Amino acid sequence: MIRLRDVTVAVPVPGHPAKTLLAGITADLDERRVAVIGANGSGKSTLLRLLNGLIVPTEGTVVVDGLDVAQNGRAVRAQVGFVFTDPLAQLVMATPLDDVALSLRASIRPRQERMRRARALLAERGLDGVAEQSVYALSGGERQLVALTAVLAVNPSIVVADEPTTLLDLRNRNRFLRELAALDQQVVFSTHDLEFAATADRILVIDGGRISFDGRPGPAVAHYRAAMG
Ligand SMILES: Nc1ncnc2c1ncn2[C@@H]1O[C@H](COP(=O)(O)OP(=O)(O)O)[C@@H](O)[C@H]1O
Ligand SMILES: [Mg+2]
Hints:
Layout: E1 2-13, E2 16-29, E3 33-38, H1 44-50, E4 59-64, E5 67-68, H2 73-79, E6 80-83, H3 96-103, H4 111-124, H5 140-152, E7 158-162, H6 170-181, E8 186-190, H7 194-197, E9 202-207, E10 210-215, H8 217-228
Parallel strand pairs: 3-8, 3-9, 6-7, 7-8
Antiparallel strand pairs: 1-2, 1-4, 4-5, 9-10
Helix pairs in contact: 3-4, 3-5, 5-6
The chain binds adenosine-5'-diphosphate and magnesium ion.
Magnesium ion is lined by residues 44-45, 162.
């Protein structure tokens, strides 16, 4: 359950009035799959980062599973997994195995058991063959699946994904979409891939930091296409 109420995000600009990145954002997001679309710089990433407290609102409130993100950043981040466009932004360990094991550190203390579990989670995504390779030796598609595996290892209730397929070729994009579709978690994602967006139950169209359309995929994509000319 995600509740955004009259959310504004503004950042200080030295010598100038504050720059408003988002304004007047109000939405209850309860659907299983919610897509966010909009032009470059429209505010998609800012909106998604609000959902796990990476950014806190300047005005208004963001409440996730009953927790106000401004007061409960750490608890919210335990509930909301975040997948970045570039998986290298979040893969901090040298190998997939170590990276997924790092995610499991709080929940499984004994090292051997933790490594076994990490290996099993990677195998579930067909990544057992690359578990001990350098993350730099993986394909972009494999890296993004490792990042997703690491995020899911802590059992989040919500997965937020910011343009997760932008760097992937079609085969890897399709593979990633299949993995995402199979998740029990609520997924909120941004994308420029309108076919991917149309798989959502609901689409928010962002334009200049505001929601310009909020509704079913068909009319939302039509609205966006018309607005982009
Ligand atoms: N920390 C920041 N300081 C100043 N401007 C920012 C900051 N973060 C984002 N912006 C600006 O806010 C706007 C929205 O950014 P963003 O949410 O990343 O858009 P999108 O993800 O839709 O491309 C852009 O114009 C961007 O340059
Ligand atoms: Mg962005």
